[in-house]
């Protein structure tokens, strides 16, 4: 879940890329308090579970999770439901396409950093095609000609380098993360061109709209999943943590093992 809303002008636009890092530092500072940190248990079985969860800051993380869920029920869910009701699905798809397209430069540089030329080529072509034929990203033309969207970010790249994840963190309105991916999130923001729009010609207004609508659309796409999670899970926090960690490691493993040729599938 993304938190890239810019509300205070061009200075906030430029500083947004540091929010995740600031959030990590704030969590670390708060985590120094004993009540917000779980010390390792002495029982061998409990210790094994403790290490598997990789969540020594669980008391703090649960507080942050509760903050986000409070905001979700009070404001985000009603707004997301209204968004689904009021905005036709094709328009919502176009907004999702815009968000994916404008993130492609960060995907491209992450792929390059991981030494994956085929993935980097796909992300470069997606950005080029969708920004032109796709009308600044409103339409995903690139997928129609063989360049499918894929997820890569600086945190994944650092994972392929062998950088350890560090403890699990839950950052409100960013979602599940860890020390490595929190830093990667900040780097990804620095690699996203929309964060550098200048004043004038309505571009700053477009940037606000892009971030706000992208955030609302992201929650709208997740409403059903979140509702089912809260209804069906005895401990939604633990479920989210486990599912995210497994999925994150699966993404890194898939990227590490991606040894495809540099030519796209449709060319062969």
From TrEMBL:
The keyword Signal applies. One of its GO terms (cellular component) is membrane. GO terms for biological process: intermembrane phospholipid transfer. Keywords: Lipoprotein, Signal. PANTHER family: INTERMEMBRANE PHOSPHOLIPID TRANSPORT SYSTEM LIPOPROTEIN MLAA, LIPOPROTEIN VACJ-RELATED. Belongs to the MlaA family. This is ABC transporter. The gene is vacJ.
């Amino acid at each position: 879940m993304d938190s890239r809303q810019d509300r205070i002008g061009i200075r906030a636009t430029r500083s947004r890329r540091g929010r995740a890092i600031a959030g990590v530092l704030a969590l670390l500072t708060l985590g120094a308090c004993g009540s917000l940190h779980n010390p390792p248990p002495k029982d061998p079985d409990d210790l094994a579970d403790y290490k598997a969860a990789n969540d020594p800051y669980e008391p703090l993380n649960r507080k942050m999770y509760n903050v986000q869920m409070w905001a979700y029920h009070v404001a985000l869910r009603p707004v997301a439901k209204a968004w689904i009701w009021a905005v036709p699905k094709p328009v919502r798809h176009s907004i999702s396409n815009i968000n994916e397209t404008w993130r492609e430069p960060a995907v491209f540089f992450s792929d390059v950093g991981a030494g994956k030329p085929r993935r980097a080529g796909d992300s470069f072509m997606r950005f080029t095609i969708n920004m032109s034929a796709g009308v600044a990203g409103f339409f995903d033309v690139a997928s129609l000609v063989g360049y499918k969207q894929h997820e890569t970010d600086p945190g994944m790249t650092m994972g392929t380098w062998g950088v350890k994840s560090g403890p699990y963190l839950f950052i409100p309105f960013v979602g599940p993360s860890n020390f490595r991916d929190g830093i990667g999130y900040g780097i990804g923001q620095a690699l996203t061109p929309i964060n550098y729009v200048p004043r004038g010609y309505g571009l700053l207004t477009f940037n606000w709209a892009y971030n706000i609508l992208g955030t609302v659309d992201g929650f709208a796409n997740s409403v059903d999943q979140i509702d089912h999670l809260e209804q069906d899970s005895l401990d939604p926090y633990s479920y989210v943590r486990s599912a995210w960690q497994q999925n994150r490691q699966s993404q890194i493993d898939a990227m590490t093992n991606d040894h495809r040729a540099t030519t796209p599938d449709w060319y062969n």
